[in-house]
Design brief:
It is a single chain. The chain is of the alpha/beta class and about 425 residues long. The strands form three sheets. The protein has a seven-stranded mixed sheet, with helices on both faces. Strands 2-1-3-4 form a four-stranded parallel sheet, sandwiched between helices. Strands 12-14-13 form a three-stranded antiparallel sheet. The radius of gyration is 28 Å and the shape is elongated. It starts with 9 loop residues before the first strand and ends with a helix. Belongs to the TRAFAC class OBG-HflX-like GTPase superfamily. HflX GTPase family. It comes from Thalassotalea fonticola. This is GTPase HflX.
């Protein structure tokens, strides 16, 4: 769609320090983003400014330094660790004769690489189109109006107007398809609500270890790697928790500072799993020096998607990278779990996470000893499916004696499902 320089894999990075906290970015995190995108960093141009330059974002002297670095290293692309305006992007491209990509476009590119499901690809494309719609200005500088003449008379639009119309049409089409996906997700949540199955959502900064924890406790095979945005598409799994029964655990996309608003808007359906969860597991890389700032960034995104009022359990992950830190559960003055210290990669302390989940999600518990005759074998099988049998013995008549512990809601569901003979099997 654009008559612009082609993107490549060899990049010059640009990072500017600003005194304002809301404009400051992290260079180390930027280099991890670049690596996650599969781009080779040739050099990093750094500088300091009080405010962005109107024309080049950086000063004119720094812009020439970037141009010299591009020529010296024969770079294919310039990556900025900041959000650029369309005019700033165009001006730097014209000066350096090289493709320019800002932080937002870089994150969108990583998301496009990671998307696997149909829904995820649609969401990424919608975010990319929203971002692109602001960058169509003079994208076709070599074309004026469409040619006239016999057989060549067009609708009278400039190429820019045509591009905008095509973008609007495509975005409208994608929104319609995503609305259908959102309705399907809503139906799934309605079904879980009717079944009274609690939902627990993993949230946290990108690369905090959410997917590793998810794989450990659910025996799933979700892609997990030491890179930013390894997980993009949400994954749901059933999990059995002591004294709670079945729960749904959701692994979601990681957050990052200054997460593009286009992404937050596009991933609304996905983030609904976080917004409507019964409990959030806020996973933190406790060995990261920036953990306090990362936690604040996650809380900011949760507030933006209106998910900041949901009960939260802090999971301090990667304790194997620290010295003299043992797995433990921290509790408040009422004895309620508020923090769990563990290492998913080293498989340390994960049983404590199950204990904390059991205490936070447990409702009314039913404990009975049942005397089940041999003719009620299906009922015994159902109880085994619920994983609620603590002990099993047999009396002299061949009756099965079962000690069961299960949530009251599961017991009531058994009664409603035609298992009313349970009442007659209760010994105590």
């Amino acid at each position: 769609m654009f008559d612009r320089h082609q993107a490549g894999e060899q990049a010059v990075l640009v990072h500017i320090d600003f005194p304002q906290e809301n404009a400051r970015e992290d260079l180390q995190e930027f280099e991890m983003l670049v690596s996650s995108a599969g781009v080779n960093s040739l050099t990093v141009v750094t500088g300091k400014r009080s405010t962005p330059h109107t024309k080049f974002f950086v000063g004119s002297g720094k812009a020439e330094e970037i141009r010299d670095a591009v020529n010296l290293y024969n770079a294919d692309v310039i990556l900025f660790n900041h959000a650029l305006s369309p005019s700033q992007e165009k001006n730097i491209e014209a000066l350096c004769e090289c493709r320019v990509i800002d932080r937002t476009s870089l994150i969108l590119d990583i998301f496009a690489q990671r998307a696997r499901t149909h829904e995820g690809k649609l969401q990424v494309e919608l975010a990319q189109l929203r971002h692109m719609s602001t960058r169509l200005i003079r994208g076709w500088t070599h074309l004026e109006r469409q040619k006239g003449g016999i057989g060549l008379r067009g609708p009278g639009e400039t190429q820019l107007e045509t591009d905008r119309r095509l973008l609007r049409d495509r975005m409208h089409n994608i929104r319609g398809r995503l609305e259908k996906v959102e309705k399907q997700r809503h139906q799934g949540r309605r079904a879980r609500e009717r079944a009274e199955i609690p939902t627990v959502s993993l949230v946290g900064y990108t690369n905090a270890g959410k997917s590793t924890i998810f794989n450990r406790i659910t025996n799933a095979d979700v892609y997990a790697a030491d890179q930013l945005f390894a997980t993009l598409d949400p994954t749901l799994r059933k999990l059995h928790i002591e004294d709670v029964g079945r729960i749904i655990l959701a692994d979601t996309v990681g957050f990052i500072r200054h997460l593009p608003h286009d992404l937050v808007a596009a991933f609304k359906a996905t983030l609904t799993e976080t917004r409507e969860a019964d409990l959030q597991l806020h996973v933190v890389d406790i060995a990261d020096e920036r953990r306090a700032d990362n936690m604040a960034q996650v809380d900011a995104v949760l507030e933006e998607i209106e998910a900041n009022e949901i009960p939260q359990l802090l999971v301090c992950n990667k304790i194997d990278n620290l010295h003299d830190i043992a797995p433990r559960i921290d509790r408040d003055e009422l004895g309620k779990p508020i923090r769990v210290w563990l290492s998913a990669r080293a498989n340390i302390g994960l049983e404590l996470l199950n204990v904390a989940l059991s205490e936070l999600l447990a409702t009314d518990i039913v404990k009975h000893t049942l005397k089940i005759p041999a003719s009620a074998g299906k009922l015994r099988g159902k109880l085994y499916q619920l994983n609620c049998i603590k002990d099993e013995t047999y009396d002299e008549q061949g009756n099965c004696l079962l000690d069961v512990t299960l949530p009251l809601r599961e017991w009531n569901k058994l009664l409603k499902a035609g298992k009313s003979e349970l009442q007659g099997f209760i010994l105590n």
